[in-house]
Amino acid sequence: MSALERMLDEFASLSDQAGAQRQAAAQRLRIVGLPARGEDSWRYANLRALDQVRSFLPGAAGALPLPLPPALPGYLRLVLIDGRLHREHSSAEATTPDLLRGATALPELEAVSDQRLGLIASVFAADPLELVINAPLALEIVSLSSAAAPASYLNLALRVAPGVDCRLVERHLGGPEDLRLVCVRLGLTLAEGAIVHHQRLFAVSAQALLFDTLQAHLAAHAEYRLCQVAMGGSTARSTAEVRLQGVGATLDWQALAAGAGPQVNDTMLTVLHEAPATRSQQLFRGLSNQRAHVACNADTRVAAAARGARVTQSLRGLLDGAGAEVDLRPQLTIDTDDIQARHGATTGKLDEDLLFYLQARGLDLDAARALLKSAFLGEVLGSIEPEALRREAQRATALRLGDDALAEPWQ
């Protein structure tokens, strides 16, 4: 039996408990199906990992699986365990009806959409949530997975009112080592002039399968600034689609993926410039250690109506050790002559000349390698705010790569 057939069969056993929104998502998943490795935008993803999931049922939410990290100063906090809100660990101000509501349906997906894996979260997430932000806000979402179920789901929508400045931090933290699936779907809608500064840290358990799906719609003069760090899981796939629908909408996307051992970490970004004077800057840094496979496909499409658009893509990979692999694919499809665009992709090993230079200045080989890797990773890590989150991301990256010295230059 295929993974899709098992999903739908297991959901049928929950049909009496599932609401209309989840029923509709299951029907949509039945129609569009799961992606296949033969599809161009899924060529690097480890989709066979879904066949290893012993059960897709979320189960009842468990107890707090590990101590919560210290709260970020000035931020409200929402804590979710297995995708369910835990009010006792959350800020009272963050759970008011004015801010937190039951989620409405996210936009329907096209039959060939790269967002299809997000439907799994829509089907199985027992507590879909919607955040409606009508005033400036700093919010931290901490999502943890317990041992109570073999799968954990989060289905979250966020809507930001016109002209509102929002700071959002997401932390998806490691749970039990035997957890098989973590599936996240996040939908964002930015009204005219809204600004969202979004920091995401994925540090799930080393054995987890992580599938993350993000969809963002930007109205006129909205700004979306995203910094994402992903290093957990044996298999990880991050899929993002950003639509710049209004005049002057702006995207600043920065992502770091670090893999070690047999890990597969695949990132797919689609940016759609649909209006005049839109801007997007896309920066990806991938570090593959030992036998890891890190990939990034950045696909930007500029419509004929998007006159005066500006696009910058910078994708870089660093190989560290025998068997390491990085695949980078910058793509630009342009249907207007009135545009400024540039893109590039490079992959290489640590510079032997620089290593020699650093050793000649008194550093041992391990310290020299750590310093060069820190400089590479720092292009993304250095932009994370607040500082406490940046230090956590640095420590988690060093832990994932098995190189404690990586954290030292940042202390």
Task: Give a verbal description of the structure.
This protein is an alpha/beta fold and 411 residues long. It is built from six helices and 19 strands. Helix 2 runs antiparallel to helix 3 and helix 4 crosses helix 5 (365-381). The longest helix is centred in the last third of the chain and has 17 residues, at 365-381. The protein is globular, with a radius of gyration of 21 Å. The N and C termini lie far apart (51 Å).
The amount of beta strand, in percent, is: 35-45%
Relative helix content? 10-25%
For the largest beta-sheet, the strand count, sense and barrel status come to:
10 strands, mixed
Indicate the radius of gyration in whole angstroms.
Answer: 21 Å
Class by SSE composition:
alpha/beta
| Global morphology | globular
Order of helices and strands: HHEEEHEEEEEEEEEEEEEEEEHHH
Number of strands: 19
The whole-number mean of residue pLDDT values reads 88
Query: Which runs of at least 5 residues are low in confidence (pLDDT < 50)?
Result: none
Tell me the quaternary state: single chain
Number of domains: 2
